Structures are given as structure tokens and as C-alpha cells.
Amino acid sequence: MVKHLDEFAKRLSTMPLKKVILKPGVNRENTRYASEGGWYECNNVRFRQGTPEKIGGWTRLNTTTFLGVARSMWNWITLGGQNLIGVGTNLKFYIENGGAYHDITPLRSTTSAGDITFSASNTTLSAAITSTSATTIAITDATGFPLAGVILIDSEVISYTGVTDNTLTGCTRGASYLVSDVSTSTTAATHSNGAGVTCFTILVADSGHAALAGDYVTFSGAVALGGNITAPVLNLEYKVQTVEDSSAYTILAQSFSATTLTFTNVASTSSDSGNGGGSVIGKYQLNVGETTSSDVSGWGAGGWSAGPFSTGETSQEILRVWSQQNFGEDLLFGHRGSPLFLWDADTSLEVRAVAVSTLAGASDVPVVQNVMLVSDINRFVFCFGTNGVGSAVQDPMLIRWSDQEDATNWTPLATTQAGSLRLSRGTEIVAASQARQEVLVWTDSSLYSLQFVGAGSGVWGAQLVGEQTSIASQNAVAYANGVAYWMGKDKFYKYDGRTQPLPCDLRKYVFADFNEEQFAQVFSGTNEAFNEVWWFYCSAGVANVDSYIIYNYLDNIWYYGSMARSAWLDSGLRSLPLAATFNNRIVEHESGVDDNETGTAAAITAFITSAEFDLDDGHKFALVSRMIPDISFEGSTGGTPTINMTLAPLNSAGSGLNSPSSESGVSTGTVIRSASSPVDVYTSQIHTRVRGRQMSMKVESSTTGVQWQLGATRLDMRPDGRR
Fold this sequence. Notes:
The protein is mainly β. Helix content is 3%, strand content 42%.
């Protein structure tokens, strides 16, 4: 008996190590145990040559920022060699050049001289303020005070939200104001009866201004109001703070330093009694757009005269999304519901874009469109979801195109190739993309192919190539390797000459955790260097993009993670992929190994977790006494890059993790690369005493300077009984 036990122990001691080689990609379509032999969870990890590795880092493109959330970027080079990026946000439109953002936002309207007047408010306290928490303030005379604004009493800044008789209500004490572009707090204090009350808020009168809160307007020709509100203070670009009514709105007065390029808020004085003179001109930029989609209900929410009189309507505020493409060296662009605009590259970067309809020779240019595109074939300009010739009514299923090589001529004549057609399957055109020798057009239920058929045959013809399909958003399609890939409302698709669903190992995981109110925020992009298509989306309950899913079209695998981005542009004319962040910056991806968006390196947490694996189909418990890692740290910039490797045991599939997770040992180990050692030298082994029927393995890094790629980890795994 003893002899047999000795032989068994000898066999156990000489059993070979178990090599852990798992299928590439991540699969969440089944349980962890049913996904045995693969990977189940990950973040900030991709696959290369079948093995997982941490994704590359990112670095800010420049130190400057833009206003708003960028939803579109387009890169092109002018004849003069300028490498430009068009950046469309919900607030403005920019041209990025050499690290600087140039505001080319088109103007909505320009007033005549004298249409605009200004008024500053000031008075005194009619009663002492004895409490630092008082939310109502009694003043001597509220005449001329805006309905909401910011006041200054002694050295305390106070904001208010209402005026009742001679009382300011909804006061926030010790509010902040801007000093040299820095928000500076003040301290709530007591104030004596009769103390002066002056105002940072200036009331602007302009009948029929049509401005919205958040809009931008630039004033010129104004003269001083008599005190602190000087002509240089007034003759600046301002953001509309509140809209009083159709004839008035407010701004926050500020001064600009040309030396430091900073702004400081300015409070009026009792001497500011003028109106700015009779030569004031206001230039209103396009109304600002939304950053998210939201349902709006109430009177006036729906279209004019829609529904029974005095009943509420419901509509959806759609976030501002731009489409843009270069036309030669010029840039054509527009957002959903806008006219078509053009920026002339022969002009200064400081010159604003203009509506195409205002250009010389313009004829029947669409006045409204949802998506625009310039075809690669013979250079036609397309507008989708536009108005017909001679009509201002938008038709969401109508397509129009300009004359060949002419963005200004949209009149269908025997002497032009301008024309139109209306699609029949669906209720609105959602997206369009240039493909190989065809233009693909998605409605909310179908896919069409537009092909050039020649001047004598209608110029462009439409063929239905996909039915019962959906697309998440205008920017949810990417074209890579001759194939169009897109995210639908419940699955993924591809078109390579025929439309078909794209099998996805993460479909259930993605769409079960999806904010369907924010489909419009979905956008895609390619990362050609790694054969990837990325889709960014909002997870359930989240208002802004926070998640991504990647399809590797060369290896036909999927992986996912968390990342906050609002737009993407692949490398091409720029050396690295670019992405816009919600911090109003553009970052270069695949740059370094850390998060350098702010200029200071921060760690990118990356991990991947396997599905459960076992010994002998879980018939027996297994004991893992050591792990032999296979890790490459090539590309790391830190002196001692580290990762954590974890074995998590279970007594049975579907049960919780064993607690304690190890017996007389540890289930985690740190794999460290010495600074003086070659790049692929790592910790030789990690001793563990982990016991369970099933186990999963996790590899994670959370420090700066780390880049890693996992190879074939080996485990010293032995049978350990049935109980």
C-alpha cells in the first residue's frame, strides 16, 4: 500500500505544467463556464497575433481647448500644404491648424446699425443684509434689472434668478466671477442699508433677435456706457446668458487683455447710464445645439400647429451632429436641420464660413438638410433629408445632388446634371457613406446603393440592397477593407456587396447595457493599424459616451471597454488616430502607454479575465501550486513595469468565488520587470495554493509607464480529490 502511494505521489510530482492558451477575442454571449477556453471580461485591451495586450496610450494634440462637445472631425490638406481638421461641436465650428483652433462658425444674422442697445443696472440696498445665507435681497429700485443676473455688493458676488417688485429672489451668496479666465470665489458677508448694488449682467435690447441661451454674438460700433462698461468691454464676442423675451437677452460684461489673452468680468457703476450709441451692430452665430438627446414635452414642443389647440406636444431634442467633407481644398459642412455651408481655403483662417446659397451663381441650393456628402465619383455634392426645388419644406426621404463639379448649382436642367430622387423604404434618411464605386444610404429601416448611371439616365440611380435593417445613428458606420460595418439598434451589420448581420460575441452584453435614448451619440471609426473598427456608445443610465466595442475584422474577434470620447478620426493625413474628449480636447491615440490628455501622465487601467477552466471537466478539484507567467513588457517606459496576475477559484460553476480564495498561500502575484534586465525577463514563478473545481485567470495593470503582452502562462495544476 505504501509503495502504491509513493508511486502516485511520484507521478503527481512529475506531471507536466498546464499551458493556458485561450481563444482570442472576448465572448459574453453565454455563461462564464460555457465560454471555457476563451476570455470573458476586459478593458483597454486588444489582441495581436492571438494574444491580449494593453492598448496604446494617448497624448493631447495641443494645449488649447475648444468650446462645446465635438461630434465630427475631418482631415484634409490644402493646395498650400496646410494640414487642416474641421471640428464641429454643439456650440461652434472650428478649423484646427498647427495646434490652434480657428472659429469659422457661420453667422445666422447681422443687425443694422442702431438695432441694438445696452443697459446697465445699479441701485442701493433698501434694507441691511444681516445674514450670510439670505436668499432674498431688498433693493431701492429694481427698474431695468434683468429677470436673472449677477450683482456685486461691496466685495461679494451674488447671483439671482428672479425679481419680485423691488426684491431679488433665488440668491446664491458668495458666487464666483471670472478673473483672468479663472473662476474666483467670493465670501458671503453682511451689508449695510444703502450699500451700492451694481451688476455684472448687461441687458441687450434687440427686437426679434431669435437668440437662445448659450448662443454667441459679436458686437461692434458700441461706445462706452459712461463708467466701467467701456467701448472695448462691449465690442467683444459674448455668450447669451438668459433670454428675457423676443426683444431682450442678457450678457455678462467682461474685459479682454490682449497681453495675457484672458478675460475678466466687469461690474457696472452708477455712471454706466448710456445705451451704447446708435452705431451698434450685432453678428449672431448659428443657434447652439444640444449635447445629448432628450424628450421635450409641453406647448410648442412639437411642430407649429401640430395637434389640437392648447394640448401638449412631445418631440425629441437631437444633439448637434455635423457632416463635413472637403470640396477640392475648400470645406463643405452642415449639421442636421441646417443649410449647407462652405469655408474657402483661399481666405484667412479667421474668416467665417458662409451659406452656399449666398455664393455667386448659387441656384436652388437646399435650404435645409440632415446629412451631406461629396461623392468620389465625378464630385457631386449630395444632400440627404432635404427640401425640394422651389420648396422650403424638408422631406426626410429626399435626396438631391448638385451639378457635377459645382457645389452652387442645384437646378435640374437639360444643361446640368443636378437632380433628385426620393427613397421609399423607411421614414427618414439617417446616414450616408462613400463606398467603392457607390454611395450607401441608410434609412431607419433599409439600405440603398446609389450608383452613377450617366446624364441621359437620371444621373444617379438607387437600388435597395438591404431590408429590415437599422442603424444607430448618423455616425454609426465605418468603411474598412472594402466593407461597410455599422451598429444597428439591436445588432451589428456589414455590407460587402450584400447586406448581412455581423455575428458578434458581445451582442447581448452591449445591447443589454445601452442607453437607447442616446442612440444619436453612437459613432464609429477605424484604427487601420490594428485592423479594428471601434464603436462608442452610452451605457445604460449614462448621458454621455462612456463605452466602446471593437471588431477586429482581420481576426474576426471582438473586445470592449470603457472610454469617454465624442468623435474619432483615423490616421491617414495625420500620423496617429485622433479622438475628441469631453474635456474639449483632441488627443492622439496609440501615443505612449499612458493617459496624457492633461499633459501629466496618468495610469490607464487595463485588464482581461478568462472564462472558467478546470481539470478533467471539473470531475475533481484542482490544486494550483504555482504560476509561471509569460509576459512581454516591450514598449514600457517605466523603470519597473508591473502587472498583477490573479487566479480566482470556485467550488462549482455558477457559485461564488471561494473564500478564502487560497489555502496557505496567495492567489495573486506581481510580475515585475527589472530596469536592468532585458525586456522579456520577468518574475520566474508565483507560488500559490489555490484550490477549486473551476478557476479563472486575470491579468491587470494600473500603474504608469506599463505596456504588456500576454503569452502562454503555465500552471502547476494537479488533481486534488473530489470534495
